[in-house]
Amino acid sequence: MNAVYSEKNDIQAWMDLVRLVKDEFPGLETEEALSEHEKTVLKFMSKMQAICIKEDDKVIGVLLFSRNRNMICFLAVAPDHRRNHIASALMDKALDELDRYRDITVSTFREEDPKGTAPRALYKKYGFIEGDMTIEFGYPNQVLILPRVFRRMRRFKQMISDEECIKILKEQPRGVLSMIGDGGYPYGIPLDHWYCEEDGKLYFHGAKEGHKIDSLRDCAKVSYCVMDQGYRNEGEWALNIRSVIIFGRMKEVTDPEKAKWICTNITRKFTDDEEYLQHELIHAFPRVLCLELTVDHMTGKLVNEA
Questions:
Q1: How far apart are CA 209 and CA 71, in angstroms?
Q2: Can you tell me the distance from the alpha carbon of 265 to that of 145, in angstroms, rounded to the nearest whole number?
């Protein structure tokens, strides 16, 4: 079973398949809409961004993708050929054509939508994660994201294990959060953090407004760096320092009970003074905004300063 580039002479067989499944795709309900879709498919074919799987003279699976937008745009399989790994073959071919050093996106049905069961299972099998809710052709959808492949550490012999990274995150009180700030300038600030072992996320707290919050609302992708205090080998002046760098996505915590749980754990990382904690929860908590960092990629390194 081979997924191949579609050519213009495939258009009739391609559209025969689309007409079979049109009721499953909002925006294809009318002949006028199907005519516009056919024009779109021909454009994708001309750019070698349309792939299909054929059986004899029949097209049984189709996929459109955009190299420019790094996006899966349309995927359909003939009803009588489903559960035969056709969609997976199309996805394998498309992902080979797209840029894995950038996020790849696809818009599909929401989780509660019965139409979404099969496509969401397919995309999640490939590692797609949930993104923004959207409305397309007047229909509620959701964007799914396949996070970019991150670079392999150049000096990989200095790499430390995930277990060591987590130990540093748990023990060290603070790090530097880097964002895209005003005017596209990088913006880094020191922050206290708490690492939660149960969900593998980092949590922060701070003011409800300012440069940091504006930056995160413009772009949720961040980098966070934490260093330990280092150590010296006997007779050496240079420190040996372990550092952890995290790439991930930050979001605001809107649940008041979860925010209180975060503030409690951050405070307890610094002090066991219960009276101080209760005072802060009463007087400072109403002014606090908590943030949640989901880790997409984490690396750690041991470096000697010499």
A1: 33
A2: 31
Q: Which of 301, 305, 306 is nearest to 154 (CA)?
A: 301
Q: In which residue ranges of the chain is CATH 3.40.630.30 found?
A: 4-146
CA 272 to CA 265: how far, in whole Å?
10
**Spatial distance between the Cα atoms of 149 and 132, rounded to a whole number of angstroms:** 20
In contact, 14 and 52? CB cutoff 8 Å: yes
* Cα–Cα distance measured from residue 241 to residue 6, given in angstroms and rounded to the nearest whole number: 54
Q: Was domain 156-304 assigned CATH 3.40.190.10?
A: no
Q: Distance between CA atoms of 229 and 223, rounded to whole angstroms?
A: 20
Q: Which helix (H) or strand (E) holds 168?
A: helix 162-171
Stretch(es) of the chain classified as CATH 2.30.110.10: 156-304
Phi, psi of 192 (to 5 degrees): -75, 150
**4-146 domain in CATH 3.40.630.30?**
yes
Concatenated DSSP letters of 240-279: EEEEEEEEEEEEE---HHHHHHHHHHHHHHH---HHHHHH
One digit per residue, the tens of pLDDT, for the chain of length 306 reads 789 999 999 999 999 999 999 999 999 999 999 999 999 999 999 999 999 999 988 999 999 999 999 999 999 999 999 989 999 999 999 999 999 888 999 999 999 999 999 999 999 999 899 999 999 999 999 999 998 877 666 667 788 999 999 999 999 999 999 999 999 899 999 999 999 999 999 999 999 999 999 999 998 889 999 999 999 999 999 999 999 999 999 999 999 999 999 999 999 999 999 999 999 999 999 999 999 999 988 999 999 888
Per DSSP, the three-state class of 34 is helix
Q: What is the pTM of this model?
A: 0.60
